Each structure stands twice: as C-alpha cells, then as structure tokens.
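Model the whole thing, not chain by chain.
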Amino acid sequence: MVSGLINANPVIYEKKQRQQRSTQSLPTDEYAVEPIDQLEIFDHIRDIKDPEHPYSLEELKVITEEAVEVDDQNSYVRVTFTPTVEHCSMATIIGLCLRVKLLRSLPSRYKVDIRVAPGSHATEAAVNKQLNDKERVAAALENPNLVEMVDECLAPSFD
Amino acid sequence: MAETNQLARHIESYVASSSIPTHQVASLDSIGLLIKTNALTLEALVIGLDMYLTSTDAVIRSRGILLLAEVLTRIHSKYLNSETIHSLVGFFKERMADWQAVRGALVGCLALIRRKSVVGMVIGSDAKAIAQSFLLHLQVQSLGQYDRKLCFELIVSLLEHHADAVASLEEDLVYGICEAIDTEKDPECLMLAFHIVEFLAHIYPDPSGLLASFAKDIFDILEPYFPIHFTHPSGGETHVQRDDLSRTLMHAFSSTPVFEPFVIPLFLEKLSSSLHSAKIDSLQYLRACSVKYGSERIAKYAKAIWSSLKDTINTYLGEPDLSFSLAPIDGIDFPKNEVVIEALSLLQELIVQNSSQLISLIIDDEDVNFIINNISSYENYNTISVQEKKKLHAIGRILYLTAKTSIPSCNAVFQSLLSRMMDNLGFSASNTDGLQNGGNFASQSVNFGFLYLCIELLAGCRELVTLSEEKHGTYCTILHSFSAVLFNAFGSVLAVSDDRCPPDLDIYIGVKGLLILAMFHLDVFPIPKSTFENILKKFMSIIIEDFDKTVLWNATLKALFHIGSFVQNFSESEKAMSYRSFVVDKIMELLSLDDIALPFSLKVEALSDIGMTGMKNMLTILQGLEGAIFANLSEVYVHKSLQSIETAVQLLECYSCKLLPWIHEHGGAEKFVVQFAVEIWSQAGNCMDFSSPFEEKGLLDAMMTAMKVSVGCCSVESQNVIIQKAYSILLSHTNFQLNDVERSPLTLGKYDISPRDEGILLLFTSVIIALRAKTHVPNIRGLLHLFIITLRGLVPVAQALGSIVNKLISKSNDTEKSGEFTLEEALDIIFNTKIQFSSTNMFRRCNGSNGNEMVLTDFCLGMANDRLLQTSAICGLSWIGKGLLLRGHEKIKDITMIFTECLVSDRKSSLPLIEGSHENTEEQKWDPLARKCAADAFHVLMSDAEVCLNRKFHATIRPLYKQRFFSSMMPIFQHLISRSDSSLSRSLLLRAFAHVISDTPLIVILNEAKKLIPILLDCLSMLTEDIQDKDILYGLLLVLSGMLTEKNGQEAVIENAHIIISGLIKLVDYPHKTLVRETAIQCLVALSELPHVRIYPLRSQVLRAIPKCLDDTKRSVRNEAVKCRQAWAAIASSRSLQL
C-alpha cells in the first residue's frame, strides 16, 4: 500500500444550503405518496466522510445532487461519483461506503448502481466492475478491517 | 510567652517550604489577626522575623520578606504612624535590589503605596524613592508573569496616588516605563500596561513637552498590539476578554494628541485590511481619537478618512430590505452590519465635529456628484447596474446620516443636493409654483433613483426634527417649496392604470415617501397642511379603488395605520382633525355604501386597522360598526336577505376577534361594550316578532361568540347590567315559564322548543358562560331547571350548567345569612330533582312510584331507554363534572362513578353507588354508543376547553386539579380494567383511561409508570382498530414517548421493554396517521439506548420490522426508519446487519 495520503491537499467546497422541502409545510393528505427522489438519496449520502480527510463527500464534491439518478417506479438508483484525483486508490472504499449506506437506507426492492464518473479515474472499468459485483462486495464486507473503516465513514451520515 | 511561641510557630509554618499552601495562608491570617487585634505589635513581628529577614539562605530570606509584606497587605485598614511607614518603605525599597526576594519587596511596596491617608500613607518623597529604586533595580521583562503583574500594579498605584511626586522623575520614568512594557504578552499585564500609558498622558499633558519626544517610542511599543487578536480561544485561565483589552488600548491611543501623527495613518491603513475585527476596531478607535484629539488635528485627515469611509460603506452595505413585512418608519431598512454601523457613527461624529469641512467633502465628492448627475437615468430599480445600485445605496445612507446629524448639515444637503436633483430632473425652484397648481408628473418622468434619495433625505430630516430642540432652518423653506412636487412625484409612482401596474419596489418607494412626508411634525411646518391632507386623500383613494393590487393596498393600509398612530401619540390636534375627517369618517362612510366595488372583507380589515390607531378613532369606528351590524341584523329579520347574513357575520367576527381584544388591552371603552351587548339583546328580543330568525347557524354562532367575548371583557357591574337585560328578554320573549318552572314537575321533551326560543336560550348561555363569579344571576333556581330540561342535544346549555356550578359560592355561615344561592342547593337541584319524560318508546318501570319520573343521573345510566336522552344527559353531566373538577369539588367523585358505571355496566354486579340500578341492569340493553359517550366524557373533563371554563371566561381553577383527578382515578381504572370480563367494557375503560392519561402532565405519570405501561400498551393496540381514534392514539403515543425520554420513566421502561417494543412494532405501519408512525419509530430509537442485556434479545424482532418502513409513503417516516435501523444494527457489530 502507499504510505502517506493520496491527495494531501484536496479542494474544499462549500456545503449546499439544506433547503426545506416545500411539501412538508402542508401536511394535508395523510395518504398522499411522497416518492423517493434525487434529493432524498443525496441527503442519505452527502454526509459520508471521506476515508482520508475529515470532510464530507459533499464538501469534496465527490458527489453532487445532480450525480444521483433515481427511478422510484422501477426501483433503480444510480450514483456517479468523482474521486478527487485520478489514481485515487480510495475510490473503491468510497464506492463501498456509498453502496453500504444506500443498502441500509433504501427499501430492499431497489437496485443500486454505483459508478465512477467517466474519465475521472485511471482504472475506471475495474473499479466499476468491482463495485457492482455482488460477490466481491459481500466478500469485502466479510473483512473486519474494511467494515470498521466503512462504519467510521458512515457514522456522521446517521446524525 | 505563649504568644511568642505561637508567633514563632506561625512564622515557621509559613516560611518552611515543606508546609502545604493552605496552612501557609492560615498562619498568615492568624498573624494578621493578632496585629489587627493589637495582640502583637508590628515591631514585635519585625523583631520576631529578624533572623528570617536577614538570613543568607535566599529561600528563607525571600519567604521571610514575603511574610512581612503579606501581613502588611492584610492590615491595610490598621493605622500605622509615619515613622513606621517610612522605615518599612526604606526596607522594601532596598530589597528590590535583592532579586531573589523581589516578590516580597514588590508586595510590600504595593501594600504601602495603596494605604489610604486616614490609616497613614506613604509621603511623596518616599513614593519617589520607591519609584527610583524600582527604575534602578528592576528588569521587568525578565521576571515571571505574576511578578510582572505586581510591577505594573505598583507603577499604576504610584501614578495614581503620587502623580506629582513621580512626575518629577520625568525622562527616567517614561524611559523606564517604556522598557518595562516593551514586548509584554500576557493579557492581564497588558491591561495594566495600557493603563500606565493612559496615566502617563495625564501627568504630562503638554502636547509639546516631555511625552512628545517619547511619542514615537511609545507608539512603536503599542502599535503591534493593534488590532487586538487572541490566537487562543478566550476563557481559559485569564479573565481578560478581547473587548476589554481592546477598549483599554483604545483609551491609551486616544489619551493624548501627541500620538496623532502616528496613530491616524495606522488606523487608516488597517481600515483597508481584510480582517473583520481590524476594520471594526479601526473605526471605533478613529472615533474615540477624533473626539479626544479635537477637530483641528483631525481636519488634515478628514479627506482620507472620508474616502475610506465611503469605500467601507460601499463595500459592506447589504441589499436594503424593500418589503412591507416590517415597516420601519425611519428611512430604508438595511440588514444590520457592524462595520457599516461603526462607519456611520464615525461619520456622524466627524460631521458634528467639523461640519463645514465634511459637508463640503460630501457635496463635492465625485461619487455623490456622479449619482446626482446621473439621477435621471435611474428610472427603474431593476435596470440599474449592480455597481451603481450599491453606490446609490451607500450615498443614500450617507445623505440620510448627514441630514439627521445637525441643522447646518441638513440645510447644506437640502440646499445643494436636493435643488440640484430637482434641476437635473427639470424642476427648478422657480417653476415649482406652476407645478403646485395642478401640475402633475407624467409617470415616466419620475424615476426610482431620485425618489430613493429623496426618501433617505426626508427620513434623515424627519429624525432631526424629532430629536433636536431648535427646529427651523433653510431646509424648512426648501421642503416647504418642494412639498407639492414631492407629493406629486411619490403619488405618481402609485398611479395604477390598466396598462401599467407599478412593480413592487416602486410601490414601496411611493408609499414610504408619502408616509414620511405625512409624519413630519406640524409645528415645524415644513409640510403644509394641505399636502398632509392630499396624502391622506391619495391613500384613501387607493384603499377604495385599488383593492385588486394586493401589495399596494396592504402597504397603503399599513401606512395609514402608522400615520394614525403617530398623529394620536403626538397629539397633533390639527392633523388629528384632518385624519378623522379624511380617513376615519371616510371609512365609516364606506361601510354603509353598498355600491362600491371594494370587497366587504377588505372593508372590514381597513376598518379594524384604522380603529386600532387610537382610542378616539376606535370609539368612532365602534359606533359605526354597531350601526352597521344592527342595520344588517334587521335586514336579516325583515327581508331574510342572505347577503346581510354574510355581512353581519363578518362584522361580528371582526368585532370579537380584532376589536374586542384591542379594547380589552387598552381599556377605557367598557361602556361601549356593555351598550353593544345590551343592544344585541334588544335586537334579539325584537326579532321575535318575526318568524324563526336564527335559521342561519353561522349568524347565531357569530353572535354567541361576540356576546361571550364581550361579557368576558367586562367588570362585575357591567356584567350585572347585561345579565339583567338578557334575563328580562328571556323572560318576556320566550315561551319558557321561568317562574313556574320550579313548581311544575320537570318534564323532558315537554317543550318542543321553537327555533326562536332555542336561539335566545343559546345566546343566554353564552352570557352565563362568560360571567365572573361575583356577578349576580337572577332567578338562578329557575334557570337551573330550565337548563336541565333543555339539555337535550344542546351542548352550550351543558357548558352553561358547568359554568354555573364552577362559579357559585360554596355554603358557609355568611351565605346562609345573606340568603344567596349556594353551590349545594344547585347540586341538590341538579342531582335530586325528579324529571318526567315522555319518550316515544316509553319504557315503564314497575317499581317506581311514578313510571316516568327519574333524576338526571338515572338518565345517564340509560333507564329511560332512549339513546338521545342518555347521550344528552351524559354530555350535560360531563360539563357539570368539569365545572366541579376545576374547582376541586368532591361531588366529582360521584359523577365519575356514574360514568364508570356506564362503562362497566354489562357486569352483573354493578357498583353499589347508584341505588336501584341493581335490579334492572340485567334486563336492560345497554346502548354501546351511549357508553362510548360516557368514555369520551373523560375527555371533556380533562382537556382544556377553548369555548368555556377557562381563564378568559373567569373559571375558578384549582391548581393541580388534573394531577389530583389523575391520582384518584388511576386505582379505580386499574382495578376495573383488570376485572373486566367483556371485551366491550374493557375497550371502553381503556378508552376512558387513554383520555385521562393523555391530558395529564407527564411528571405525575412518570411516578406511576411501572403500573401504567401495560395498560397503556393495551390502549394503544385497542385504539388502532378504529380509524376515528387516530388522534387519541397519537396523544397516547406521545405520553409513551415522554416516558421513554425522561430519566424517571426509564426504570419502568426497562422492565417492560419487550412488551413496549412489540407494541410499538405494531404501530410502525399504522396507515392512518403519519405522525403515529414517525413517533413510534422515534420511540424505538429511544429504546435502543437502554442497557444491552435487556434489549439485545429483541434486536432481531425490531430489525425484521423496520425494513418495511424504509419503503413508507412518507419521507419523514423513511428518514426515521433509517436512523432506527442503524441504531438497532449498531447494538452488535455491524457485520451481522443483513444486507
């Protein structure tokens, strides 16, 4: 493994203002359905901590609201994330965090697709393949060290 | 001898390095006490200390000297003669050379210097000697922090108490001080150091004297500290706050004008720094310095200061708040920014100090001129570029400030700038006359920029007029000559036509401008009365015609309200007259006109707003309102006009919701309120000549509310008047035979009450509900009978009964003598009078003397076998019960017994309370609906009612009544629930229990939590069955969540964790109320905090239930579910989380 930080000086961006949903102000219909939407998914993952910096993925612009695609009807989510540097070996960890968080937060009917943004990573294809391979994800989560690392990154997103 | 030994022991204990600090302090205190009580002389102490003071061992010597010094500090209030002091001074002064004993020397000198003259103080020459020795021997900066602090304290004391003596040291002193304070870093020492500089400036005040030659040096020492900035977070060990330190430094800098050549450039430079605190500090320091240094010295910097101030304001001034939400009366409202506030107050200070120079700077400033010259191009707010908009705002603020600062400055800006703007727009002072006579602005010739600056100028000027003593100046003349032009300009912005609707900002500017113009004090007379009246006319025409432009209309109404309150508050009689004739009277006129287009609801809104400007206007408005209401009421009665019903309802609502609360708050119009109430009664009486007047339910409700609130506002005397009137109407205009009612047997259903009688009766109950306890109610006995027989289906009657029993006085010796009607008599009537009833499905009882005669409580128990009668009786009894419960009467027990009897009565053996009920419980069929009604009676008992029996309607409320009721009811419920065998009575009991528990304060429930939780969970599962119970369910769930989060409840929760969790899991998918699901999941999260041993076995159960909530239809539930799942998954390692 590489010693030292992979990206020692990441650029920090401002957090986006958390807007109040307008629908919450009128709790008129008890039975109206509020579908799972882009912002809701983004709210789940925005506070995940970067594995090597004390900043959230949102602050590092690894994920943005626009990078979340969701289709509630067909139970499908695709999250495209952008590692801060091209050769970032943390990309798989970040992807794993995103997957675990969404698995824990979404109903089981959902299929989750996690991808690295095209052109943002040196071994893009390999990373994508690794992240969407059920067996390999399950195997990764058998590794106590990895799980500990993932849990640490997810901790702030549950507050 | 003993004393000497004791002394030696104390000394030894202090000097010995092995003894602990508290012992050392204790021995010091006891030596001090010995000397204070004259048990020991100072000489004896010195002799005793001899060997310690002169020892060659440095540690012992320093402790010895410190001991003497500390003792001196402790006896500061004991008289010492001059010789003693002199010799002590000599001793300590010498010791300063001894670096190992320097702390003792410093403490000793400080103690001596601080002595007051009455107890013997150090003489001048001695002080000077101390100072000399200090300067000679001490290297302050090489000492530790505490010693340095002592040094500075010594200098401060010397400068403070012996300024003359030490002043003669001149150069040595200043030089020594410079050396001492140089590179000091400790905040506490710095506070003292800055003080010392300030003192120096006081003792060498000559600006060209000694200090002048050192000014550069001292400045160099102080300069690095500016601006004060703490790198470490404040708090910690030091008690010095940044602000205190900064203020002290400011005093040091501003202490003498000799610093001026160095200080002002420094501040000007720091003003452009990017550090926020540097800016604020520079502005504050500049202001302090300009006050202290005097205008002459500042004059040469004025230009530089002005230009940097202008830039600062330009940069930091935010976007103005051009909205009507909060209408500030003065100027434009800007978001508060500290930098801007400081900058403006510095500017104001400079204008006050050096008026002519600053004003010429402002007037000749190129930015100001740029704006003024280009004013004609700023036609519309949205078309101005961002940069220029900023400039416009900044200049506006500056002009506002200039105008409000002083008369000369106000004169100057008006003279040069306003006239110039006018010229640029083509209205020179010479042709204003033409404009005044009917000349009108074409709306395109008026532009935003001009009006904006005008508002700032006028607002400043208005404030000047309000604040200053002397009021006249050239500006008055100018304003006077331009007032018509300004009026037209502002007015024309508001002109609305079909093809043009002004944007919101223009409306703001227009209304604001007119508002400010109208609010000038008349005694200065810059605005002629005719203009004021024109403004009012303009506003009124908007009110009448432009009601479809909501923004404009609301703003105008608000402006009228402001003008009205202003005119009233400052008792400007002439303006008040105009206001009354142009606004108040006009509004009144509107009310009676039907043909104008203004919607009635807006009319009413305008009416109430104008009324609230002052008592005098309010009375006028009330009179008009009264007229309108009665006119409409008689319309209703005579012509049955539906339109009038609606109108009357709106007017009555306005009266009871807006005007009455205002009157109640301001007082003084009670006479009117009484008159109004009496008048309504007369109307109600008259209307009986026509058939069924109250067919419109809404109107009756509005009248009842108005009556209730009116009576509630009144005093006892006024209430007496109203109740008398009401009673006489009830007596004379209805078919109720009140005087006979007592003698003839009570008959339910005897009267088939006509709608008219019912209306009058309900109106009468609303009077009864709002009465005070002391008010005398005529023929209360008859009324009680009347209410009982009319209970059928009329809830307000039940409330009136409750109100009566709540307020009647209880039996005592006094009441027996005075013959007043007491509570006991009332209860006797209510509970023991036999009532006849005639029901269609008459059930004949064979064992009574009279087949169809029974008391009220029997009706509750369903003996009449008529559902309507039973529910009515239960409803009546519940309100009576509430009245009794609030005052803490014990009869409530009997009433609750009746209710519980209803609840459990399918058991064979009923409660022994009600006699005669045993025999027939078996044969009776109990109506489940009526029994549910009995369960809901507990809700009436416990909840806070809006409509009656509350503080507003003068109920007698005993403190903690809910708690008492709760603790008396709980054992009964527990007992009954555990013994109930039928599912129906069990569910009814649980329902009643739920009502009681959800309205009880949580703190009482917590004590009983252990016993209550199982029952509470039963309730929860029972209530999920019926969709109509969702609100009770939610209330109960909140109680449970309260138990979970409170410390006291947790013990009980731990014991019952498993049943609570399985209960909550049933609720997480309750389909009918989102809040229930959300709260249930939150409760589960709270439960996950309990000890692991207890909850670990339940973990898989929760984790199986929660995932379906992740797919809930409501987002809030899903979010809670995510948290809940995580909380429970985290109980063990996350690896076992099912993915």
